[in-house]
Write a structure and sequence with these properties.
Number of strands: 37
Structural class: alpha+beta
Largest sheet: 8 strands, mixed
Distance between the termini: 88 Å
CATH class of the largest domain: Mainly Beta
Number of helices: 11
Helix content: 10-25%
CATH architecture of the largest domain: Sandwich
Amino acid sequence: MRKLLFYLLAFFPLYATAQQAVNMKFGKPTDEEMKMTVYAADSSAEAVVLCKLTDVTYTIQQSSFLVDYKERFRIKVLKPEGARFAKVVIPYQQYISINSIGGTKVTAMALPKPGGSSDSYFEGEGVSMTEDFFGTDADDIVEDIKAVAFNLEGSKVVKTSLKKSDIVRKKLDEHNCQVEFTVPNVKEGTVIEVEYNIHSQIFWQLRDWYAQCEIPVAFAKLDMNIPTYLIFNIEDHGIQRLTHTCTAGSQKFKLVSDPLSNPMTIGTNHYIYTGRDLKAIPKDDYVWTVKDYCAGITAELNTYRLPGMSQMDFAKTWEQIDELILGSDPFSLQMNAHSPLRQELQNAHVQDIADVQERAVAVYQLVMKHVTWNGKYDLWPQPTKEVLQQGTGSNADINMLLIQSLKDVGLEAAPVVMRSRDQGKLPHNFPSFQKLNTFIVGIKQPTQQYAYVDASSTGGWFNALPGTLLVDRARLLLKDKKSQWVNLQKICKSQATTIIEATLTADGVLKGELTSHYNGLAAVKQKGDSEVVPFNIQGEVSSGKISVCPFPPTLDLRHPKLEAEHRLMPVEFPCEESQQVTINIALPEGYALENAPQPISASTPDKGVNGRYSVVSYDGKVQVQYLFSVNKVSHPESNYEALRGMFDMFDNLTKEKIVVIKK
């Protein structure tokens, strides 16, 4: 018993020492950090983040808050190519409308009324009450930037510091900016240290925080001390999960606006998120947003109160968010207005087209004749009259014009809001206004179902949206709390059917034509619903045998090469798809199939991918049947080996040759 107690007592101090081994003091890397040549947990790493620290603190003003983010990180460059991490980009925001509290460009929306009602706002005659408290805009300020490269030259550590003249500030658009700089004298063996502060008036948003990146991270820590005046929904995510604690704390403060006042103490929620030995999450061709799988947190304001005021609720339910969007000026005023193309629609007698889909197509074509998509996705549309005058606009601008025009010809149309796949997934544990970034158009059909279209859709095909918009959680916004979720991945699919009629000659020439029919996204990709393509393939002739691959090289068979042996993340495809090919070959006189291979039928364990392949011979002909279907958009990493095997198998089958022999 005494020995056991001794071992326990001995163990805990060792454990604590290991926990404290991370060097959190910036300005002087340790000897071990300077001499490191390989990261033991990943010997292939070109660089490693040794330490990443983020501290989030609030300053309380008389009727507002300020939030500060203190960012520090240390990187060890292990290989020459790791020197690319000397370049640092810091995004920040400017001119964010206070009236939006959770989104931008909502120029007439104020804070929700206490008690959570979202159908009335703190507004007077054309003036929001929030403007009296905060002003009209809020900004981030990136300041106190320090960056140093530490290099070991002989036995001496040489420091090279970033110059202020090397810091570049860029404005990307109306609201988004970034700071850029490259830490000087970075090479293999360098230890990089970067420190900066973001001083933000955008107190109602917490910046997304990611512990992982494309190189390994030895240690990462997020420390947030948030006044209990502000309650956030917080969701942690990632393949590797963070450890976290939340404890009650306190904070002393003096009002910045009243420096002579006595210090006050308020309660806080103190959050600490920690990650250790986090694996590299590199860029990947088979996921839409790598950050969805990085360890980190996302948050959104739930409730708040200003000092001396009652508690206010914000976006506690999706129904509240529905009402916030539909009640905002960019939506409510425009969705109740006529289209500026109304007269032209009437002159063209579009309203007299009996078939609903044909009428909707006519509206789409007329709208797109007047405006072109500028390549940008947005949530908040400009006034449609201005868009028409400009002749170009974001998808939101054109989609609002489309909704107005559809309604003017007697069709029911509604916005369908979402977070596009290239921006990441919506949080699972709480409703999110802040994460929505665009909308498409839903058009009600006689079946009471909806067809979907977007200004970025090529050719105006319905239910054939670009891959980035094929989300599994889109919200169809309808009045009177009748909004509903839509899984666009089950609606927008790609289907291709090909029939090949060919003749094989005695000198080994396979000649014929392939006729393909396309539906959904396949029709968009091919820019048409059918095509006929002639082909001519020279096979091999030897000793009375002819061998030839029956699949023409012009046939587009989509088999992605999944080359990695192992995988951390799921495999994501643009959409569900199926491809069916039937090949009928007339053999030369006196020839027959040498050996018919056994038919193959295979699938992944979850039936997410399945395929069939067969070769049969009859009456001087050979028929090859091929079917390959992707029935799920996202495939878990646990099925990766089976998925990879399926694609490799069917890719090889389409390269195999059939052999016919002279009788």
